[in-house]
Amino acid sequence: MNLEVREQYQTEITNRFAALENLSDSEHINRDSENIKENIKTAAKDSLCLYELKQDKPWFDEECLGFLYQRKRDKMQWVQDPSQSNVGNLNNVRCKASRHFRNKKKEHLKAKTEELETKSKIKNIRDLYTGINDFKKGYQPRNNIVKDKKGDLVAGSHSILARWRNHFSQLMNIHGG
Questions:
Q1: Boundaries of domain holding 42
Q2: Residue 91 Cα distances to 70, 75, 84, 85, 129, angstroms
Q3: Number of domains in the chain
Q4: CA distance linking residue 157 with residue 151, whole number of Å
Q5: CA 31/CA 45 separation, integer angstroms
Q6: For the segment 10-68, what is each residue's pLDDT rounded down to a tens digit?
Q7: Together in a domain, 18 and 94
Q8: pTM for the whole structure
Q9: 76 and 130 belong to one structural domain
């Protein structure tokens, strides 16, 4: 491990635990343990510069990540000290972050529609229809319904698991005769 990174991590941990020293002893032990765990994770991410971008949201960039970490940091402050000023600060940051995410998503959708318009103008029909289908489909929830042997619909996780268990046991346990 690089010596500079180690020193930066040690200072991050020292600073974060110095802020945790004034926590109450017995009131909220679960909340305190969550604070400690979150502080260790955040210090490691900050010192190692580990940032994970979500691939399922193409509009999510480094600026959005900054808002996300600011919101998380303010929430940690609120958890440590639930005063009225920290509540107001957390609400302001949440509002700014939500507004920023909404605007980024709108910009992304606007760029996608303009791209579809240009595909339409240059008569690139295949890519146009593929893009339109992507927009139309959007979020597709999973179906948690299967049919049993009689063709009746079965819902519920235990019933579905039993149905799949029976189905595959019949497939795999064929005895030659």
A1: 3-137
A2: 12, 9, 11, 10, 42
A3: 2
A4: 18
A5: 21
A6: 787 777 777 666 655 556 667 777 777 777 777 777 766 655 544 567 888 889 889 99
A7: yes
A8: 0.48
A9: yes
